Amino acid sequence: MSAAYITSFAISIVAASTPLLLAASGELVAEKSGVLNLGVEGMMLVGAIAGFATAHQTGSALLGIGAAALAGVALAMIFAALSLSLLANQVACGLALTIFGKGFAALLGAGYVGIAGPVLHPIALPLLSRIPLLGPVLFNQNILIYFSFVMVALIAWFLNRTHAGLILRAIGDNHDAAHAMGYPVIRIRYAAVAFGGAMAGIAGAYLSLFYSPLWSQDLTAGRGWIALALVVFSTWRPVWLLVGAYLFGGITFLALYLQGMGFSVPSPLISALPYAATVVVLVLISRDARRIRLNQPACLGKYFHAIA
What we know:
The protein is 72% helix and 1% strand.
């Protein structure tokens, strides 16, 4: 196998993994605060169409990314208002948000189907991009791929090395004790949910502005659900989130490259492989209940009602 073929395969893995990593990073922070938002798929779709439409109208992909983040936050705030302020069931609200997001994105995107828009071009980092094999894979990418690496590092640092991160984790593990100590549980959870929405929106913009630079209905193709599974796979640890995202990105492209090498792989199997792998991995992880209990926020998905 030639070096060019290996490099091409690695670049494809990075491209396929980035939207999963972006969306899962935001969801990890939200879940660390004790909020389970299953609406990632809907927020990604709305972010994808908001980003694409804005970029198409303004000619700026960067403005499109900003609009996608704001669209994700807007949808996340609907979820937060229902589940945190009105104490609606978080699972039901998340599922409703996904359904609403899919329909709303399809409505907004009806006039953009088949239209080309601005794309995110790769940015080669001086000297680093010339490193054999590794340079083209990691240091000649678009801004959102660099952003995904930076955000994983920042989230890991924030959760493990800062006082604010400790407070966020404390709220996720015992919101009553955190409230008794004077911390604003609901406000902090609103902020965590907003961050998760922004990251999901940016992940959607990545799909419509780089991965497949156009708009089509159901552009995310279930990636929001894989992002949710990645948070469990990582046992709520950012470093393992990075590993899991690239593992699933590799699985996505493995069958395609096997076909290119002459192996006969049915197309339906190629489409189903990432989702089948998701189910298998979650089954295997669920057998280690002790590790999940040690790392899962104890108040994940639970109601909180402050009593004066």
